[in-house]
Design goal:
With 458 residues, the chain is of the alpha+beta class. The protein is built from 17 helices and twelve strands. Keywords: CBS domain, Cell membrane, Membrane, Repeat, Transmembrane, Transmembrane helix.
């Protein structure tokens, strides 16, 4: 009897040890899959030895996964192999005291042992270590780093054998094995990460919008950021310095110079004008003090435009269209606004915000608000038209110049993320034209209308 009890106790302890080993390999697998490698690299740079070891493991992800799977497989086989002789038979012998035969007792004892072992294995050997590793990936990865490297070194031959065998099977079906996980993120991935972080409150709304704009910046061209010709004041080469000083006293300190052929020929700055007047040449023309114009095409990318402006002494570039005509101006401030949003200085302190929420799903907007800012305000993509502003989209949708008081309906594409949830919505914008200037909308009211798409509805 004592021998039977000792065998039973040893068997239970051995099975628990096997389950613990299985849990170790499960935790190893999920910890190194979920850990933030950038965070490990930062810790390693500060001299954290555990982080250095963990980072070394993550550089061999495929090998580590193969090793973890080998450990999980072996522990599972050992568990099934020892359950019956160590626990099943001992438990069967004890059940004889309840009137069962030895064979029946062993059979019942084995069933009980496997049933209990399966439950404990699933909870303590699979689910608990998995959830623990995901919830505490960095501490777990650092804690297991030394033992993982030792395991990968000692059993490296067996791991390599199984890993290479699996890779041969993959190549047999013309699939090239991947030896490490791609942890990089595409631009679209980053947009989704930022949007999700904004919705959960992990990052402030303003910061998330700035991050969105930074990602969009390389994709934008000069036409997107420039001040259009209709909003630009300029002077002619024949304008006198006295006339120019009067203009500068009321408005800007820099002006583009445009000739009769509608071509930008220079830029004039206030310090140059004042120096010339102080020298007694107040009757001279702008042509005598203007600097050579920095000319940019509308289709140039914003990073290239920024590079040109940094090399220029003007910090104000004249923009031309594809026909060579003057299209507008671009300044460093305009480029900064592409990242931080609207900038207000002492000259426009009373200017209203370009996008003003009025109520749920209703916004008041200026007509020259860019499409990407409209999308950020409403939270959904607009149809992909070759236009820059909400006013341009109204004209494109209407096919003509809209009238004041007219409402234009713009259908929105279905949000692709809703296909996963199965809850689809049909959305459209009702854009009311509130004010017209120079024949185009300068102020609009935008209302977002959402209706669920019923099953079977197109």
């Amino acid at each position: 009897m004592i021998e039977t009890l000792l065998t039973l106790l040893f068997g239970i302890l051995f099975i628990l040890a096997i389950i613990a080993a299985n849990g170790y390999f499960v935790a190893q697998e999920f910890a190194y899959m979920a850990v933030d490698r950038a965070r490990l690299a930062t810790l390693a740079a500060t001299g954290d030895e555990a982080a250095k070891r963990a980072l070394k493991v993550t550089k061999r992800t495929s090998f580590m996964l193969s090793g973890a799977q080998l450990g999980i497989t072996v522990t599972g086989l050992v568990l099934g192999f020892v359950a019956e002789p160590l626990v099943g038979q001992s438990l069967g012998a004890l059940l004889q005291g309840f009137g069962l035969s030895l064979e029946a007792g062993i059979a019942l004892g084995t069933v009980i042992t496997l049933g209990v072992a399966m439950v404990v294995q699933m909870i303590m050997g699979e689910l608990y270590p998995k959830n623990l590793a995901i919830a505490n990936a960095e501490p777990m990865a650092r804690m297991m780093s030394r033992s993982t490297l030792i395991y990968m070194s000692v059993f490296g031959f067996f791991i390599s054998f199984f890993d290479k065998s699996a890779n041969l099977l993959l190549r047999a079906v013309r699939i090239e094995p991947v030896h490490d996980l791609d942890v990089s993120a595409s631009e679209e991935d980053l947009h989704h990460i930022i949007a999700n972080s904004r919705e959960t409150g992990d990052i402030p709304v303003e910061l998330s919008l700035m991050m969105d704009r930074i990602l969009d910046f390389p994709e934008r061209d000069v036409e997107h950021a420039m001040v259009p010709r209709s909003q630009v004041d300029w002077v002619e080469p024949e304008t006198t310095l006295t006339e120019l000083v009067s203009l500068m006293a009321q408005a800007h300190t820099r002006y583009p110079v445009v000739n009769d052929d509608d071509a930008p020929v220079g830029v004039v700055h206030l310090p140059d004008v004042l120096a010339r007047i102080d020298a007694g040449h107040a009757d001279d023309t702008v042509e005598s003090v203007m600097r050579p114009a920095t000319v940019l095409p509308t289709l140039m990318s914003l990073p290239d435009a920024l590079d040109q402006l940094e090399k220029s002494t003007n910090h104000l570039a004249c923009v031309i269209d594809e026909y060579g005509g003057f299209a507008g101006v671009l300044t460093i401030e305009d480029l900064a606004m592409e990242i931080v949003g609207e900038i207000t200085d002492e000259h426009d302190a009373d200017a209203a915000d370009a996008v003003v929420p009025q109520s749920d799903n209703v916004w008041l907007m200026e007509g020259d608000v860019h499409i990407d800012e409209v999308e950020r305000a409403i939270g959904f993509d607009l149809p992909k038209d070759d236009v820059e502003t909400i006013a341009g989209m109204l004209i494109a949708e209407r096919g003509a110049l809209p009238a004041e008081g007219e409402t234009v309906v713009i259908e929105l594409p279905v949000d692709p993320s809703e296909f996963a949830s199965g809850e689809l919505f049909k959305r459209h914008l009702e854009v009311e034209v509130l004010r017209i200037e120079r024949h185009v909308p300068t102020e609009v009211r935008v209302k977002l209308v959402e209706n669920p798409i019923e099953e079977g509805e197109e």
